[in-house]
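ok, trying the design again with the full structure, not the truncated one.
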């Protein structure tokens, strides 16, 4: 299995990061794609992924960071820094980027988010990197932006997908993969489970988004990279597939998308 989206650079892992990653390896995780959120974390990611052979970095400016910026000038400065950083640091993808209209990033910040999103779409094309999209309660807006700007040749993924099945189909038609996270572990999450059932096998990824989004019934606790096994089991049960085969296929999809080595360890 490959965790297609996690945040192992987060300070909540500072005390036991190596142990948490080793616990994940013991349940079959063989790669960790570490997503970016903003300038204050990119160097931590770079150091982590330089030191750990099976961790791979994506760098991006998260919609929450854009929404909370003091002004457009701060956002422009962060985008310029991102472009400089990508010239120096090995990266397997660009993101997180996208649009968020939840309480974390109120809807009145969407114009600023959209401007930063468009800039990062162009940067992904220029750097030949796949996209790592964060889209919450803004799928229609995000789909419009991506159609207008164009999908980078390498495609991308919509992480921790929370839209409906028709939106998933529209993302897939644009050439993006759908990444399923811990929400599928909740038997009450009917929409997420319907999406998990319908995503084509070659467009399916699995992730933890750790340390956030601990799977049901452990909400509120720190999510662990080893919880990817629980995500795989849940998705396999929903799809009536063998968990090992599903995990292997999702790993191949992630390795193809991010151009990961066959055996990073």
């Amino acid at each position: 299995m490959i965790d297609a989206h996690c945040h192992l650079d987060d300070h909540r892992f500072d005390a036991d990061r190596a142990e948490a990653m080793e616990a994940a390896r013991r349940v079959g995780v063989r790669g960790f794609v570490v997503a970016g959120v903003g300038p204050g974390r990119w160097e931590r990611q770079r150091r982590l992924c330089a030191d750990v052979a099976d961790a791979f970095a994506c760098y991006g400016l998260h919609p929450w960071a854009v929404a909370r910026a003091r002004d457009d000038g701060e956002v422009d400065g962060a985008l310029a820094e991102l472009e400089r950083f990508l010239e120096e640091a090995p990266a397997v993808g660009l993101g997180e980027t996208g649009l968020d209209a939840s309480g974390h990033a109120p809807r009145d910040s969407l114009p600023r988010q959209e401007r930063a999103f468009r800039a990062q779409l162009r940067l992904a094309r220029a750097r030949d990197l796949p996209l790592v999209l964060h889209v919450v309660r803004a799928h229609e807006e995000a789909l419009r932006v991506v159609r207008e700007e164009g999908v980078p040749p390498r495609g991308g993924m919509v992480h921790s997908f929370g839209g409906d099945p028709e939106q998933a189909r529209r993302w897939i038609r644009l050439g993006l993969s759908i990444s399923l996270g811990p929400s599928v572990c909740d038997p009450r999450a009917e929409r997420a489970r319907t999406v998990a059932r319908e995503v084509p096998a070659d467009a399916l990824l699995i992730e933890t988004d750790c340390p956030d989004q601990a799977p049901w019934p452990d909400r509120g606790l720190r999510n662990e990279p080893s919880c990817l096994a629980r995500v795989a089991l849940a998705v396999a049960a929903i799809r009536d597939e063998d968990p090992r085969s599903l995990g292997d296929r999702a790993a191949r999809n992630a390795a193809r998308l991010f151009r990961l080595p066959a055996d990073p360890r």
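Keeping the full-length input from now on. DSSP finds ten helices and eight strands in the chain.
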